[in-house]
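#random but structural
TW: two for the price of one
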Amino acid sequence: MSQTTLSPRHQRLALINVCLGQFMTALDSRSVIVALPTISVYFNTSVAVIQWIPLAYQLTIIGFVLSLARLGDMMGRKKIYGMGFLLLALGSACSGLSVSLWQLIFFRIVAGIGGAMVLANGRAIVSTLYAQEGRGRALGMTSMAFHLGYITGPSLGGFLIDTVGWRWIFFASLPVALGAAWMVWKVLPETTSDKGRLSIDAMGMVSLLLTVVSLILGLQQLARSGVGWAAVTAFVVTVIFLGSLLRVERKAPAPLLDLALFRVRMLSAGILSHFFVVVAHSSTFFLLPFYLQGILHFTPTQVGLTIIFFSLVIVFLAPIGGWLGDRLGSRLLCTLGSLLSVVSMLALSRLGADAGHAAVMIPLMILGVGWSLFQSPNLSAIFSAVEPRHVGAVSGISLTAANIANAVGVAVGSVLFLRWLNYYGLSGSVLPAYTQWTQTPDVFIKAFQNSWLIIAGLTAIAVVTSVMRGIDRRMQKSS
């Protein structure tokens, strides 16, 4: 890998740029979600169709992030990363100018490719520039930047919708994206690690995307109608595509997913831990707004102000978690962080009809502390577990696993909640609007509680894989 020595000032500027990319991608996705009701009215379309706006963005990232991480390794991370900001700007501008829903969805795909470029290479750049020391702290700063975007997105999106219209959600990101692209060319060094023949595993990319899409469709069918021919067919197709993916990746000269990397216990354990923790987060934040509004009668504003406590904790504690990871290694901190996530799920499973603000916010704050202790040490450990030439590939793998976990988590939350309602005699086909849930609150409360209990069990898998990961390579060297 080409090594470039940066002055401390340029190193800090490079970190600021990567943090800006993390902030922007989080801000973009969160502000768009706030705009979905307004856009559905504008284009006179259903909720089922309007969901393709965020889904197109997320599935694009899942399908492209590994290939773009590989491209960064071969062509240069700076090139791909900088082009990502330009594509984000183009996709955002065209999204704001769209005259039909399907145009908007198409340009969200364009923006998704740009987002995949930024996400796939940003953390790899930070990991490379801070390889000697401070990697955990730097990765903690990127996590903090992401959650700042996560916090800012809903409030900024709502303000823009109310004042100048939904199109400005997309236009507002233009100067930021263009400024970030200019900063890339001026500040960042090239960090190419594996120059060679350009090769993209198209079959692997398609197989991965089809595997995830069929899995999500199967889970949606399971939530809607239980175990039926549609759900079973989708899961069978998922297994077929997964088998095809594994077969293609074993034979590909430049595989999208380097299966040999998973022989490294630290990497495989870290990815598995990350997956189950993110599934817990995603399913929780899918269920929680329905509980808060349907059972506790929170307004949307109160829901946003309650959920924000999760990210506020991370903003302050994520850099500390990275600092501790540099000194204590990942096994202790990731185990403790996963355990706190289990505790949070168990606390949420005890919420009833008379829960107050504190009863909801405290579990969310515990979840935020757990994530702060888990995320940065886990990322730092899996980057340190492989050779520098594989850093880009590992960045892509971790991002893909997180995006898949986000999609799977929403589906799992839906499956658990609707299946428990069905168990208690309330069919999903006659499910009343959340405004009517207080007429029979016990059924819905039991469904929420049991769902979070099962989610706690899934999160406990991350505790086990964190314990089994072994000692970081950095800790072995220091000892």
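TW: number two ↓
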Amino acid sequence: MRHLKAHRKLGRTTSHRMSMLRNLATSLINSEKESIVTTLPKAKELRPYVEKVITISRHAQELSGENAAAEAVHLRRRAAQFFHAGNSQQKTSTGVFGKERAERTAGVKAVKRLFDELGVRYKDRNGGYTRIIKLGRRSGDNAEMAIIELVDNAAELEAKK
């Protein structure tokens, strides 16, 4: 019996797999086209991961009452766990050999975009925020490739008009 064996391991340790999903989720939320190209098994694992965090941002849109501000902070902190943290306090720092290192704020930008734009966009939608489109096989290693994208993105809405 396969009890409690719900997700793919993708040939990685738990920490590596969670880090990979966080990177993919951050890339998907921060991308301008709101889509990324990856392998099909990774896309299938990323879909419920991203949909859970978008649902958290939707709940923040529905808040009202006396504890709404505290609850909104709580939801933002829960959503931040789905992305690599980034350091919003660190402006620039010196990396290896004294070179300037880029700001590490991709996770912070993802959470901000999630609550400011995506939570509002999907306020009336009950799930199904992502779409997976199969692309065929990659020539190098014959891996099945796919595009995972957010539905109702800007390019899709322009095409409908």
